[in-house]
Amino acid sequence: MIPPFFCLLNRLTFLNLAANSFNGSIPSCLGNLSSLTHLDLSYNQLSGSIPTSLGSLSLLSYLHLYNNQLTGNIPDSLGNLYLLRELLIYNNQLSGTIPSSFARLSSLTYLHGNGNRFNETISSSSLPPSLLELSLSLNYYQSISESVFHKLTNLYYLYLSNCVLNISTTWIPSFQLAVLRLVSCMIDGEFPPWISTQFSLEILELTNASLVGAFPSWLGETSPSLRSLNLSGNHLEGSLFSNTSTGMELYELDVSRNRLSGQIPSMWFSSMQILLLNDNLFTGNIPSNLGILSYLELLNLANNKVTGVIPTSLSNCSSLAVLNLGNNSLEGSLPHELSKLSHLYSLVVRSNNLNGSFPPSIVNCSNLLVLDIGDNLIGGKIPTSITNLSSLSVLVMKENHFTGNIPFEIGLLKQLQILLLSSNHISGSIPHTIVSLQAMAIESQDGFEVSTLSFSDGNLYHDGLDMTLKGTNQHYPYILSTLTSIDLSNNELEGQVASNLGNLKGLRLLNLSIKN
Asked: Which three-class secondary structure state does DSSP give residue 512?
């Protein structure tokens, strides 16, 4: 627990006990430290309620209580902290709502209360006009109306989630936002017209909001400062920006899981780092112009109706870490030029009509963790050089036309956790070196993701996986460490199974069957 001797330091102005292992309740006697201007108790395991005595700290400017296990309502007494500038109480278990006494906090600029259990309606008179940042996401608000924001003329950051927004189509806000994040907020209609009045937007996120109608191409004109746009998980239709002459310079665009159609635009913003167009209805070829995006780190075009060949110009995207072109109608061979992508972490081209042989030069992508070329028409032998991919955790080559033996060197892939070679024409015996797959010899219980990539802006990318279990195809949206698998079924293998296969104690699935 927090030692009581802190309460005796009556001249203390700055108290930071963050990121320790303090538990128990916050001592109410801390309210006696009348000289305190900063109090930080974040990143502990503190429980119980926020003491009402903290409302006596008349000089307090910064109160950080986030990432604890605090419960109960926010005490009304905190409305007495007239000099308070930052109140960070996110990631607790607080309930109720924002007290009406907060209207008196004329200096409060940052109020972050996301990740709690607030469930009562926010009063339009609770929030002080001084607020610059308001984050109340991941709570249990049933409904939020436009009147809540009536006095917030200085607001530039707004983050809400999991609520119903009752906002009229004629509303014109009194603020100009730079950041607007509305995640899983039920809008259930066309794109909100009031967003067209936000001329300073830099980050706009409206995900899983049941939006319908056309993609808001007017954003390029009304919000020329826009840098990040995330409209994923809606029902938007039509085409994307027709050109890039709008003045915008997007570095992130996520319109995945919509109903967008037409061809993928051939011109993009030169600063683009993340481009997610997956799970739509795009048709036509992959534009070769994408090759000019030297900063591009993540390109996902999966689950569309894209045709043609994979352009070799993609090899010029020198920063590319993830390339996912799966579940389209691409043809031709897998370009050997992709071997230039030295930062490539995940290459997924499954479920297309790719043919030819596997280009041995791909092994130059030494950072590959996931290689999925399954469900294509690729043939030839599995190159022994594939073992140069020493970081490889997932290797999927199933349902192709591969012939010859499984390379003896396969045992050198010490990080390999998933090996899917089913439904090919592979012959010979199962190499005994398969028991050297060290990652499968470890029993994993925690189920961490083996293919998660974190980007500099905080975004995460998760690879998925298609597997056949007992004759039924299963899709796993995440690849977990507990999904250790070897599937060599429906081939022409013969001979004996290695007697020490039992050494692979972490193996969860082993399929050596053949169709009747």
From this structure: coil
- Provide the residue count of the chain: 516
Is the CB of residue 382 less than 8 Å from the CB of residue 363? no
Q: What would the two tokens of residue 109 be? A: 């600029």
7, 30 in Cβ contact below 8 A?
Answer: yes
Give the span between the Cα atoms of 129 and 127, in whole angstroms: 7
Quote the CA–CA distance of 227 and 111 in Å, as a whole number: 24
Element (H, E) at 347: strand 346-348
| Cα torsion angle, 89, 91, 92, 95, sign | positive
Tokens of 366: 């030494």
Q: Which of 202, 261, 253 is nearest to 232 (CA)?
A: 253
Total Cβ atoms within 10 A of residue 467: 20
Spatial separation of the C-alpha atoms in residues 420 and 141, rounded to whole Å: 45
Average pLDDT per 10 consecutive residues for the chain, totaling 516 residues: 93 96 96 96 97 96 97 96 96 92 95 90 86 89 81 93 83 93 84 91 92 89 89 93 65 94 86 94 94 93 97 94 96 94 94 94 91 96 91 94 94 92 95 90 71 61 73 74 87 89 89 82
Q: What is the DSSP string of 106-152?
A: TT--EEE--SSEE-SPPPTTSS-TT-SEEE--SS--SEEEGGGGTT-
- In angstroms, what CA-CA distances link 359 with 24, 333, 347, 363, 488? 60, 9, 13, 8, 22
| Separation CA 51–CA 258 (nearest Å) | 47
Tokens of residue 62, six digits: 């910064």
Q: Which two tokens stand for residue 159?
A: 């983050």
Q: Residue 223 phi/psi, 5° resolution?
A: -130, 70
Tokens describing residue 199: 């001329």
Yes or no: say if 348 and 370 are a contact pair by the CB < 8 Å rule.
Answer: yes
pLDDT tens-digit profile of 114-167?
Answer: 999 988 888 778 899 999 999 988 887 767 888 888 899 999 999 988 887 888
pLDDT at residue 157 in the model: 96
* Token representation of residue 194: 């009031």
CA pair distance 430, 289, nearest whole angstrom: 44
Residue 22 in tokens: 């303090």
pLDDT for 449 equals: 65
- CB of 486 closer than 8 Å to CB of 508: no
How much is the pLDDT for 460? 67
- φ, ψ dihedrals at 318, nearest 5°: -65, -15
| Measured distance CA(33)–CA(6) in Å, rounded | 9
- Give the span between the Cα atoms of 415 and 182, in whole angstroms: 39
Q: Rg of the Cα trace of the chain?
A: 28
CATH numbers and ranges of domains, the chain = 1-141 (3.80.10.10)
Dihedral sign for Cα atoms in the order 99, 100, 104, 106: positive
Q: What is the pLDDT of residues 10-31, one digit of tens each?
A: 999 999 999 999 999 999 999 9
